[in-house]
Amino acid sequence: THHAAPALHWTDLDGAPATLAQWRGRPVLLNYWASWCGPCLKELPDLQRFSHAQAPLPNGVHVVGVALDDVAAARALRDQLQLTYPQLVESDGPPGTAAAFGNRIGTLPFSVLIDPHGNVLQVHNGPLHPADLARWAAAAGVAP
């Protein structure tokens, strides 16, 4: 899977532009979700805990959510679940930029692990569980 991640552009939930390159230098876990996706709703609290644990580590994994949803629904869910990691939005819905990582039919949730140099390390269809997240952190070179 080790190939360069494409140069992608989004907006955050406040309308500010965001690119994948802005997180270069740390591993990034991109997580595609939607408010209408049941498995996504179960996974998001685990991602929040993982993000909180990784944030203080010097080379910790930077979690970034990509909501394939409308801004209002994504904002409401972010606030309800108290998600503190960055949330980007693609209002045109699945597959969106997930197609660039091989998810052409837009299955959700869908996650991508990118190394600090911008190379794709892992892709995963379906929810990530805490044990998966620990494996991904190890794959990204983060000590437990």
Keywords:
single chain, 144 residues, alpha+beta, Glutaredoxin, 8-stranded mixed sheet, 26% helix, globular
Helical residue percent band: 25-40%
Number of helices: 3
Number of beta-strand segments = 8
- The radius of gyration is 14 Å
Judging from the principal axes of the Cα atoms, what is the shape?
globular
Query: What name does CATH use for the topology?
Result: Glutaredoxin
Total number of distinct structural domains:
1
Order of helices and strands: EEEEHEHEEEH
Distance N to C terminus: 23 Å
The CATH class: Alpha Beta
> Could you tell me the strand content as a percent range?
25-35%
CATH architecture label name = 3-Layer(aba) Sandwich
Strand order of the largest sheet: 1-8-7-4-5-6-2-3
List low-confidence stretches: none
What's the pLDDT, averaged over the residues? 92
- What structural class results from the helix and strand content? alpha+beta
Largest sheet: 8 strands, mixed
Protein name: Thioredoxin domain-containing protein
GO molecular function: antioxidant activity; disulfide oxidoreductase activity
Domain Thioredoxin: 1-142
GO cellular component, one term: cell envelope
Detailed description of the structure:
- It holds the Pfam family AhpC-TSA.
- With 144 residues, the chain is α+β, with helices and mostly antiparallel strands.
- It has a single domain (27-139), classed as 3-Layer(aba) Sandwich (Glutaredoxin), CATH 3.40.30.10.
- It has helices spanning 38-54, 71-81, 130-139, and strands at 3-4, 9-12, 17-19, 28-33, 62-67, 87-89, 110-114, 119-125.
- An 8-stranded mixed β-sheet has the order 1-8-7-4-5-6-2-3.
- The protein starts with a strand and ends in a 5-residue tail after the last helix.
